[in-house]
Amino acid sequence: MSGEWFTETLYTDYRQSLRISKVLHRERTVYQDLMIFENPCFGRVLALDGIVQTTEGDEFAYHEMLVHVPILAHGNAKRVAIIGGGDGGALEEVLKHDVERVAMVELDPAVVELSRRYLPSICGDAFDDPRAEVIFADGAAFMREADETFDVIVVDSTDPVGPSVALFEQEFYADCRARLGEAGVLVTQSGVTFMQEDEARDTYRRMKPLFADAWLYLTQVPTYGAGFMTLGWGSLSAAPRKTPLAEIERRFRAAAIETRYYTPEIHVAAFGLPGYIRALMG
Ligand code: SAM
Question: How far apart are CA 116 and CA 88, in angstroms?
Answer without folding.
Answer: 8
